[in-house]
Write a structure and sequence with these properties.
Length: about 190
């Protein structure tokens, strides 16, 4: 249903309907490393004729709000996730479990940048599970300085890649996961 919301989303967030939109998700608190990356690469990103919707997190908003401009919106948090997902053409995100599940359902071409600072490197494992099925791209934080520009350029310029990522990540979505689990339990009880 999110596709039908695209025009509503564009007017709600005051986006330019002629430009593709990059959504950046750093998690509710924000991600210092992703924010540093976007700050450094903002001109490069915009040079691809892309507008940026940058959720930097409440800790970082004061530091990054100065980048608000015609084609860049910096926000601490997003009140209408359904609409911003509808508006987004590409996503750069952390790879926490809930973000990954949401992005599988949304099925937009995604670049995961897992946080290395979580227990047992769960985020890298989450992202890798999708990447191994050709459902998303992933860069480790240690690769950002050398590989971001090429990876991002691939993501935003190759339509075949975009379609492939969207189709593959969609097949990994489990909108019926709870129902499936309940059915399994019922079978076991019988």
């Amino acid at each position: 249903e999110i596709d039908s919301k695209k025009s509503e989303a564009i007017s709600y967030f005051n986006l330019d309907s002629n430009k593709k939109t990059l959504l950046i998700l750093g998690g509710s608190l924000g991600s210092r490393r992703i924010n540093q990356l976007i700050e450094k690469e903002l001109e490069f990103i915009q040079s691809k004729d892309i507008q940026v919707f940058w959720q930097c997190g409440k800790f970082y908003f004061e530091e990054y709000k100065k980048y608000n401009s015609k084609n860049v919106q910096v926000v601490a948090f997003i009140d209408r996730m359904d609409l911003i997902y509808a508006a987004a053409d590409f996503v750069i995100s952390r790879a926490g479990a809930s973000s990954v599940s949401e992005l599988c359902l949304v099925a937009k071409p995604t670049l995961f940048i897992p946080s290395p600072n979580v227990a047992e490197d769960h985020q890298t494992k989450n992202a890798k599970a999708i990447v191994d099925k050709n459902g998303a791209l992933m860069l480790k934080e240690s690769e950002l300085d050398t590989q971001f520009q090429n990876t991002f350029k691939d993501l935003v310029t190759h339509e075949n890649l975009q379609n492939q990522l969207s189709q593959n990540i969609k097949t990994l979505a489990k909108p019926n996961a709870t129902k499936d689990i309940v059915e399994e339990i019922v079978k076991l009880i019988k």
